[in-house]
Amino acid sequence: MEPLYDRLGRVRAWLHAEHARIISLQGSHLASIDGHSVYDSSGQHIGWWKHGHMRNTRGAVVVWASDAFGLGVIRPPQMPPPAEPKAPVVEGFQARATPPAHPARSASWAVEFPF
Fold it and tell me: 4-fold beta flower domain spans which residues (predicted)?
């Protein structure tokens, strides 16, 4: 799994790329990635994933991986990651909402997390 950093450079979640999932620091499922869309565990569209980072529905950067590019914001220094959780149990997908129109990219950080 790969650490996902927030606007302060802290690890906020893990990317389980093999299953296209965003996992909490404790190992529970937070969101899934389908193409460029990100869905929460109830199937609601909560943002977009592209170039190694997630943007919320307003276009602000939520989390980013070390290899992310095209953020449009200044990256903070990366804090050391915590211990990686056990691999989560991959459950079936929930029905997913239709994604809304993609907003313009914002040169700002998201303050709230959608998951």
Answer: 2-110
Q: Are strands 21-23 and 11-16 parallel, antiparallel or unpaired?
A: antiparallel
Q: How many domains does the chain have?
A: 1
Residues of the chain with pLDDT under 50: none
d(CA 76, CA 69): 14
3: containing domain: 1-115
Contact call for residues 49 and 36 (beta carbons, < 8 A): yes
The DSSP call for residue 115 is -
Question: Considering the entire predicted model, what is its pTM?
Answer: 0.81
In three-state form (DSSP H/G/I as H, E/B as E, the rest C), the secondary structure along 10-77 is: CEEEEEEHHHCEEECCCCCEEEEEECCEEEECCCCEEEEEECCEEECCCCCEEEECCCCCCCCCCCCC
- Amino acid (one-letter) located at 5: Y
